[in-house]
Amino acid sequence: MSQSRFSGKTILVTGAGTGMGRAASLRLAQEGAQLVLIGRRPAPLEELTAEIESAGGKALAITCDISRNEEVSAAVAQALTRFGSIDGLFANAGILGNIKPLAETETDDFDALIDINLKGTFLTIKHCLPAIKNGAILINASWTAGGVMPWVGAYASTKGALLALMRTLAVEQGPRGVRVNAINPGIILTPMAEDISDPALLAKLAEHTPLRRNGAPDDIAGTVAWLMSDDAAFVTGQEITVDGGFTLGGLRL
């Protein structure tokens, strides 16, 4: 492992087993971080832990449903027992939910999204905050919070709420030296996205992106590492869009 920006620091990542969480965890580990890997499924977390440790890093895998207060509290306590501190949090976990127009969206659809995307992120931050001093919190929001993609309005609503939460936390926690920011990923080909996207649609989205491709999880990892590091020591309360230029000039489909 390359010891650099995160040497001696512990970073907790939710939704760490796949996609952007996995890519970010590997990047942070490569830069010297000790990782607390949180997710709902043990197998991907165990595979990631083994990969990090085989490269000389340190990682702790914890299976946890972030919508449950008691489970989050226990996970953070376990992390502190293992590493003694938490220096940063990448609140990445989220679900897309059912794809449908808002007029057809049911309360159960909203409940599931709010439980994970909004309440789960809030609970993770709440329980990590006492341990984070002069550190960083990064929230994974979405380009859909500022742009419009039909049929994902309920999902986008929770991501817009996360941006409001981020800005408030940045003001409240700034005096403690805690920076709070958000990223808005564009079209990123995570397992979640690929499972619900038609290849023809993905090709069309890539065509309308100035860089002429859709993103990969690794395209997010570098921005995560920068915002979590001291290189971004004077950056707080900001949302950074990482989308290859897809949203320039508004949504194009």
UniProtKB/TrEMBL annotation:
Residues 9-177 form the Ketoreductase domain. One of its GO terms (molecular function) is oxidoreductase activity. SUPFAM superfamilies: NAD(P)-binding Rossmann-fold domains. Signal peptide: none annotated. Keywords: NAD, Oxidoreductase. Pfam families: adh_short_C2. InterPro entries: KR_dom, NAD(P)-bd_dom_sf, Sc_DH/Rdtase_CS, SDR_fam. NCBIfam families: PRK07231.1. Belongs to the short-chain dehydrogenases/reductases (SDR) family. This is NAD(P)-dependent dehydrogenase (Short-subunit alcohol dehydrogenase family). It comes from Pseudochelatococcus contaminans.
